[in-house]
Design goal:
9 helices; alpha/beta; about 35% helix; about 260 residues; globular; eight-stranded parallel barrel; TIM Barrel
């Protein structure tokens, strides 16, 4: 049976951020994820999760300057010191919040992203992850929503994981991005599941609930069970209306 984590950067926008943990728990979620927690004290986030009885399963490392369009630092040549600082800050938060997994966004080609820098920084990140018994993920993003992003293909991400060869590194397979950029989702899940560290979902093409669009998510949920995926599935979609009004697709799973 798939296990779902509410992405609190997308869902429960009706609530203040620190109130979203309890709202998700009321609807039956046992885990949450979010993008960037750094506008809040880590202690406040940990307390909100603890009160709600919620597992925090993923968030992103600091991404650089979002206002300038930056989307991560891990692959940016000449920004290695900033990435190391971001890594320290992210792991500090993860330690306080008790989060096992951090996503290291690669960055954009226009900002200087290159393969050798990416691999070197990920080697450093995974070494730190092993020391702290945590994990790092890398995520291919589609070029429609994220033009110029460095990492866009599943095979490229899994090749990097194989090259680095660390148990602390896995691919964050967002099925929404995968379908838009590449398609053939079933075969990609079957081929790559051994190095998938986290899965995320949204309806395609409009990133709403996974009950509309061109993918059959009930089929895909059965598939990830069949191939032995035991991790969380992050619900990273934009509700068509309110979050709770759109949870009909999830009720049977959340009740279980």
């Amino acid at each position: 049976m798939p296990r779902f984590a509410a992405n609190l950067s997308y869902l429960y926008q009706e609530f203040a951020f620190l109130d979203r943990f309890a709202a998700a728990a009321e609807d039956g979620f046992k885990a949450v994820e979010f993008l960037f927690p750094y506008d809040f004290a880590a202690e406040s986030i940990a307390a909100a999760a603890r009160r709600a009885g919620m597992n925090v399963v993923l968030f992103n490392l600091p991404p650089g300057d979002l206002a300038k369009g930056e989307r991560g630092l891990a692959a940016l040549k000449g920004r290695e010191r900033e990435f190391a600082d971001a890594l320290e800050r992210g792991f500090d938060y993860a330690g306080i919040i008790d989060c096992p997994r951090l996503h290291a966004m690669a960055g954009r080609i226009v900002d200087g992203a290159e393969h050798s820098t990416y691999v070197a920084n990920l080697r450093m990140a995974t070494a730190k992850a092993l020391e702290s018994r945590r994990a790092i993920t890398i995520e291919p993003l589609n070029t429609r929503d994220n033009p110029g992003y460095f990492l866009t293909r599943q095979q490229a991400a899994h090749d990097i994981c194989a090259d680095i060869g660390s148990a602390a590194l896995g691919v964050q397979m967002d099925i929404y991005h995968c379908q838009i950029e590449e398609g053939d989702v079933t075969r990609r899940i079957e081929r790559h599941i051994a190095s998938v560290g986290h899965i995320q979902i949204a309806g395609v093409p409009d990133r709403h609930e996974p009950d509309e669009g061109e993918l059959s998510y009930p089929y895909l949920f059965d598939l990830v069970d069949r191939v032995g995926y035991a991790g969380w599935i992050g619900c990273e979609y934009r509700p068509r209306a309110g979050t709770r009004e759109g949870l009909g697709w999830a009720r049977q799973y959340l009740r279980s």
